[in-house]
Design goal:
This protein is mainly alpha-helical. It has one domain (about 10-70). The chain has helices at about 10-20, 25-30, 40-45, 50-70.
């Protein structure tokens, strides 16, 4: 089922800048809001910028995990 969502011009521009040539806006939103299985997520990456974002997010998660463990 499809839903209608209102976005500001700035939000639309940002979302559009993240959209791959063959992606729908739904694909972009699902990709940007996080896939629980990193290997499945990486398999869907289309451009280097996305890969860099994923790697940075994984590094941040690793740092948070180490802090929680006191390492």
């Amino acid at each position: 089922m499809a839903k209608t969502v209102q976005l500001s011009d700035e939000a639309y521009a940002r979302l559009t800048s993240k959209k791959g040539e063959r992606e729908s806006y739904s694909d972009v939103i699902l990709r940007m809001t996080g896939e629980k299985d990193p290997l499945r997520f990486v398999g869907r990456l289309r451009i280097r910028e996305d890969f860099d974002e994923v790697m940075a997010a994984m590094r941040r998660a690793e740092v948070r995990g180490r802090k929680r463990l006191g390492k």
